[in-house]
Amino acid sequence: MLPKYGTGPGTCQGKPLGRQGLKLWDSPQDHPERQNVLLLFGFKTVLKAMAGKPATCRNCGSFVHHHLEERATKFTLFFIPVFTTSRSYRITCTNCGYVSSISARQKRALELQR
Ligand SMILES: [Zn+2]
What we know:
The model has no long low-confidence stretch (mean pLDDT about 80). A hairpin with a 5-residue loop joins strand 3 (about 80-95) and strand 4. Strands 1-2-3-4 form a 4-stranded antiparallel beta sheet. It is built from 1 helix and 4 strands. It is mainly beta. The site of zinc ion (ZN) has 7 residues, from loops. Pfam families: Zn_ribbon_15 (PF17032).
């Protein structure tokens, strides 16, 4: 006799879950050694434009304003930035577009010159 479903109260428990049975989740009692932990992490580079300053370009040699840009690589957990893993700075010449990377120490030195 075929089990009938949805014909009244209490009938949905008629068929036991066998090998072909659809099991949506494992109960922790079935696999005590297995822990279902989902970790979603990654890295993300955040660009931040900062106030630049006039300087002499290394490439074209003209004394023009330079854009200063901060590049921070952040560790993300579930798409939320948790902490910054590395930070670098780039200056761009507004005359010729020459881009040069500077370290955080050089960037601090630039700020002190102001
Ligand atoms: Zn230049």
